[in-house]
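Workshop exercise sheet. Pairs work together: one partner reads the sequence aloud, the other fills in the structure field after running the prediction. Swap roles for the next sheet.
Pair: D.N. / O.F.
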Amino acid sequence: MDAGRAQPERIDPPARLLDITRLIRRAGRAPTGVDRVEKAYLDHLLTDPVPLFALARTSLGYALLDRDGAAAMAARFDGTVSWGAPDRLSRLSRGRPLPVRRAESDLRRLALARCLPQRLPAMLARHLPRGTAYLNVGHSNLTDRVFWAVRHGADGRVAVMIHDVIPLEFPHYQRPGMADRFRAMLKRVRDGADIVIYNTRDTQTRAEAQMRQWGPVPPGIAAHLGVTVPTAGTLPDAVDPARPWFVILGTIEPRKGHDLLLDVWGDMTDPPQLLICGARGWNNDAVFDRLDRLDRNGPIRELPGLSDRQVAAILQGARALLFPSRAEGFGLPPAEAAALGVPVVSSDLPAVREVLGEIPVYLPETDRYLWKNTIESLSKGRKRVEPATVAKNFVPPTWAEHFKSVLRFT
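Structure field:
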């Protein structure tokens, strides 16, 4: 299936069951791209007329929410309602961060039902209508137990989103053991999913090539993610508005190319500001050490923990977003920047080309000299791309389009 082809008339299931395990597990942390996708699904399905339930795996079993409970959790994820205090049961999971224990406590307080793992099929059978459609879009809680429970407890269908297969194609960028865990997860998806959702056609091609090693692949649909850009707030104090700046946005992990930009800035005699927006990730000690040794008054600034409005303000004033990534499933930062009319300089990746076409300036991620020349030209205005030109040429994909395609089949 393809989101761009003619599609059959939508036939809604009697109910949908959205897995929100990832959002619970990452409570209190800055959201990643996958977190935002799971939250976008929650927000949209709360407005859809089809009855909605939500499922989460906690440290003590499973919790099931009805629509009201799901809406209450969404308000907490938004920050419009504060998390409650940890309950007594949270003492049994003291090893988890406090925000997660508070989130799991609220989940239990709001739950329609709760159960130990072995009782999951019975809980779903008791509360869900037959034929419920289960959606998992967060790469979390993708287990044989859940798939079996949905099928046998609710006579349901399973839809799973795969965001990328980077752990299998680039295992050297991952935490130890991640490639094996991801491979096992993808095998379960091949065995247990009725339909697989992909964020790009490139991701679909790569994922299906991996799954084809183990047998026939489930039907799939490629639907670009929605790109929503918040209203810009105020610039952080660490940004000097009188000097030009460039932005790299995303988790600081090996495949994102921060090392290349640090090398480029080290080669410049009069460098502009480089604003590194994102939390520190994994397997990147050499980069972390270089960041720790930066001059606090120098041109390179590490800015973790920014709000979406602050990031939008930084992007709006940037000479360009820099995206020297070595692998992507979608590439949300360049899409967000282009939606704001901000020029993009990116590695030449199939997923980025699929979403953005010829909008970015594409450079080989290994050519340090070419990155330096391009950045210096943009900094001095010799290659200035006007924001209005970028915005005029890029029509960002929307969540409305995404759900119009996906919900026909789920």
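Discussion prompt: Residues 245-393 form a domain with the Rossmann fold fold (CATH 3.40.50.2000). What would you look at next?
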